[in-house]
Amino acid sequence: MAGRVRFKDGFDHCMCGEGDCPFHVIYGHWTILEVAPPLRRPSGGWITQMRAECVCGTIRLVLLPNLIRGLSKSCGCVREKQRWTHRFRHGDARKGRTAREYTVWQAMRKRCMSPQCAQYGDYGGRGIMVCERWMQYENFLADMGRRPSSAHSLDRFPDVNGNYEPGNCRWATSKQQRANQRKRARLDQFTDEELTGELSRRAALRLIL
To answer: In whole angstroms, what separates CA 173 from the centre of its chain?
Structure first.
């Protein structure tokens, strides 16, 4: 690539000699090559996909919402390099001695970021994200601390429809989690406050996608 220049849209573009190139936009370590066929969501509807090239040369299809939100920054080559660095730094991902908090952190990111995950439709597919700070395990552990007991698991509270972020997560027992489950009833069974929040969330998700 000849070089990059930052345009007023806030993203880096390649300097291909054709002015404001419609593609070749840089998201993290991805360079957009072209629009790909959309991916059908598990809950219905479609998600825009882009054909992108990683800085290491790998070419893959990447979901556009994940690029815009910064949830996908490379094909995994950068993350793999960081993973080995983190493994030796925090000590919670040693082979055969992986800490439960590290496993919880991995599962949280997978269900929000990977369309291949069976639970993606209830998390990332609904617009639920992991905050930028918690993309690093050390920050997640510093904010959440260790689980109080083996009976506790990660729970989004007080906003069950909110993101995974400081102030909206806790270690909760299964009884506490059952009391905090999101409603799956028809919209006409929501309270006025719940209905307003749910409609706002859906409208915001449509704008993103």
So the answer is: 25
